[in-house]
Structures are given as structure tokens and as C-alpha cells.
Amino acid sequence: MSQFTNVEISTKANIYFDGKVTSRTIIFQDGTQKTLGIMLPGEYEFSTSQKEEMNIQTGILEYKLKGQEWKSIQNNGIFYVPANESFSLKVHSVVDYCCSYLPEGN
């Protein structure tokens, strides 16, 4: 989806890794949330509190979920991270992403 309508946007940025990863939170009318962000080249590790869908819009990265091998995305792709897990990223070019926070059971 390239556009969202009828949403609230948090003006305060989420800033990680000394500004190399940033995002803004959008909140839908039903209360669900997504973040839209940018990652600069580098290596990062994140942890989740709920299941996440990482939708890579542009850019090149590798990702590694717990117990799995490294996988690559070039310019467009999706991966899912289970709740209460960590994952690693190797970002090779500027990445534009949308992270969806999924309710349990999805």
C-alpha cells in the first residue's frame, strides 16, 4: 500500500543508533499502528514486543531471524518477526520501510 488515509501521525520521531535509523508512528482509526522509517547503512539489532511485518519499500539489506540463516531483500520485500524475538540487519544502502505491528494470532 503506497498511501494511508484517515490516520493520526506522531510528530515525534523514533530515533535509534545515533540517528541512523528513524521512524514516525502512524495510528489508524481502529487503534492499530505502523511506523514509517529510514535506515542508513550499518548493522543493527532490534527486539520486538509483538509480531511485526517489515515491508521494505526500497533499499538493500540482509536480515537474520533467531535460528535462521541470513536472507536478502533488494528494493522490495517483506519479512515477519515473531513477538518477543530479536533480529539482526545489515543495511547496505538507504532503506525505506514500513513496520506493521500485528495483533496476536496473525
Give the integer mean of the pLDDT values: 94
Total domains: 1
Q: What is the approximate shape?
A: globular
Please identify which CATH superfamily we are dealing with: Jelly Rolls
Encode the helix/strand succession as letters: EEEEEEEEEEE
Strand fraction: over 45%
**Number of DSSP helices?**
0
Q: Gap between N and C termini, in Å?
A: 18 Å
What helical percentage do the residues reach? under 10%
- Using the CA coordinates, give the radius of gyration: 13 Å
Quick one: how many beta strands?
Answer: 11
- The helix-and-strand class reads mainly beta
Written overview of the protein:
Catalyzes the phosphorolysis of diverse nucleosides, yielding D-ribose 1-phosphate and the respective free bases. Can use uridine, adenosine, guanosine, cytidine, thymidine, inosine and xanthosine as substrates. Also catalyzes the reverse reactions. InterPro entries: Ppnp, RmlC-like_jellyroll, RmlC_Cupin_sf. Its EC number is 2.4.2.1, 2.4.2.2. The structure is a single chain. With 106 residues, the chain is mainly beta. The chain has a single domain (7-101), classed as Jelly Rolls. It has no helices and eleven strands. The strands form two sheets. Strands 1, 2, 3, 4, 6, 9 and 11 form a seven-stranded antiparallel sheet that branches. A hairpin with a 4-residue loop joins β2 and β3 (21-28). The protein is globular. The two termini are 18 Å apart.
